[in-house]
Amino acid sequence: MNHIQLRENIKNFSLDDGPRGNQGFNRVLLQLFGLPGHGKSSLINSCKYVLEDGGPFFEYAKVGRPDRVETMVRRSYQLTDTITLVDNRGCPKMNNFETAEIYAQLGNFLPLDIGVVWRESYSDVVSNLEQAEMEPNESDLIIPVFVYNVKHSIPEEGIAELSSFITNCRLMTGVYPIIVLTNKHSADYLTLEKTFRRMRAEVVMTVENYTNEDHMKTLGRTTDILKFIDSALNNAKYLMEQPRNPKKDRIGRRLFLLNHIHDAKLAQQEEQIRKEEEQRAKRNQTNTSFWRKLFRHKQ
Ligand SMILES: Nc1nc2c(ncn2[C@@H]2O[C@H](COP(=O)(O)OP(=O)(O)OP(=O)(O)O)[C@@H](O)[C@H]2O)c(=O)[nH]1
Ligand SMILES: [Mg+2]
Q1: What superfamily in CATH does domain 3-263 come from?
Q2: Which of 177, 166, 109 is nearest to 143 (CA)?
Q3: Within 13 Å and on the Cβ side, how many CA atoms surround 65?
């Protein structure tokens, strides 16, 4: 398919066109995740740019913000009547409650375009979840996307975390995340691509984002970005071929998240017990050596 056909397909995509109709869904949410600075906002700007024929480059999503985020905003950017991109906030540090935050965003349990402060305790996480139930937005079909800059290799200790994120995306949404490798001209991306495929990623795309500094359109760059959107829509079409119930899907995501938070709480308690035991052992050792010294002295 050439870039013109790809662009038309994307613009005309509707959830009503599948063999089973829209089944109660009215929007496809492309949920973007990734470490700070890997190109999520730039990918959003690039997607908007390639869909607008001849329009100027515009920075819809602010590029290059600092990593530290206290208040978290999941920002949404409408691409077409049916497709919306969501810029989720990532966390540089990944304790179990912070991964819960990622899954809460993925499951669409945190509000869009409103700042949310997410603390590190069980009750905060649960209370945020309860608030989300006030206005359940179950009519969004979620497609996860993971953005990674090819300039960075994946550190050994990050592989397990990333691997479980990829697996959990499938458990929560029914699809493996689409991996988008950005900055494709700056390094050899083949090893990175293989690593992601070993983690079971089914679709790995490479793009060179359009940025403020360099947004001269070329056929290759534009086609790559359109192909990314198109493959996300293929996943959406595949999900819609199966009988679905938006309410049940949301309940499934909620159960997944509650289990995850429960495990995180247990892990936190175990860690606390381990630390206390370590301290007790240290204290005992000090006491023992004191008595031993005293005993020796008396002899
Ligand atoms: N050359 C090149 N630069 C890129 C590409 N993608 C992003 N950048 C640059 O990388 C820097 C970070 O990009 P952002 O889009 O802000 O990254 P982000 O993932 O949104 O970062 P946070 O919002 O901090 O999480 C910016 O200076 C971009 O111009 C790309 O494909 N090619
Ligand atoms: Mg950003």
Answers
A1: P-loop containing nucleotide triphosphate hydrolases (3.40.50.300)
A2: 177
A3: 17
CB distance 38 to ligand 1 below 6 Å: yes
Domain spans of the chain, in order of start: 3-263
Q: For the chain, what percent of residues have pLDDT higher than 90?
A: 60
Per residue in 65-94, pLDDT (tens digit) is: 545 554 568 899 999 999 999 998 765 555
Token pair recorded at residue 182 = 């950005």
d(CA 228, CA 178): 8
Nearest CA to ligand 1 atom 8: 39
Q: What is the pLDDT of residues 32-47, one digit of tens each?
A: 999 888 999 999 999 9
**Ligand 1 contact via 62 beta carbon (within 6 Å):** no
Q: What is the pTM of this model?
A: 0.89
How many CB atoms sit inside 10 A of residue 168's CB? 19
Q: Is the CB of 163 under 6 A from ligand 1?
A: no
Q: How far apart are CA 273 and CA 169, in angstroms?
A: 31
